[in-house]
C-alpha cells in the first residue's frame, strides 16, 4: 500500500491594527481567507506569529504589525 503524504502550503502575511498585536494577527487571518489560494485549495489549519513590529509616526505608535505564517491543507 502506498501512503500519500499530505500537501501543506505555507503563506506569509502581515496583519495590522491601530489597537493591538492580537487584532493585527486576527486581521491577517481574516484578510488571508479572502485570497484566491485559500478559497480554492483548502483551509487554514495553523498560524504562527513570526515577528512583531510597530509603526511610529511623530513619535507616536500608529499601528501594530505582525508577520503571520499560515499553513494550508
Total number of β-strand segments?
3
Poorly predicted regions are none
User: Helical amount among residues, as a percent range?
Assistant: 25-40%
User: What count of domains describes the coordinates?
Assistant: 1
**Structural class, from secondary structure content?**
alpha+beta
What is the end-to-end distance?
Answer: 23 Å
Give the overall shape: elongated
Structure description:
With 73 residues, the chain is of the alpha+beta class. The protein has one domain. It has 2 helices and 3 strands, in the order βααββ. It has a 3-stranded antiparallel β-sheet. The two termini are 23 Å apart. The model has no long low-confidence stretch (mean pLDDT 87).
Provide the fold topology.
Blueprint: E1 9-17, H1 21-33, H2 36-41, E2 44-57, E3 60-72
Antiparallel strand pairs: 1-3, 2-3
State the gist of this model.
It is built from 2 helices and 3 strands.
Notable characteristics:
73 residues; alpha+beta; 3-stranded antiparallel β-sheet; 2 helices; 3 strands; 26% helix; elongated
Amino acid at each position: 500500500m502506498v501512503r500519500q503524504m499530505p500537501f501543506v502550503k505555507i503563506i506569509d502575511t502581515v496583519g495590522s491594527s491601530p489597537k493591538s498585536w492580537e487584532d493585527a494577527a486576527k486581521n491577517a487571518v481574516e484578510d488571508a481567507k479572502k485570497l484566491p489560494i485559500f478559497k480554492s485549495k483548502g483551509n487554514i489549519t495553523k498560524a504562527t506569529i513570526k515577528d512583531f513590529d510597530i509603526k511610529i509616526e511623530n513619535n507616536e505608535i500608529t499601528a501594530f504589525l505582525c508577520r503571520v505564517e499560515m499553513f494550508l491543507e
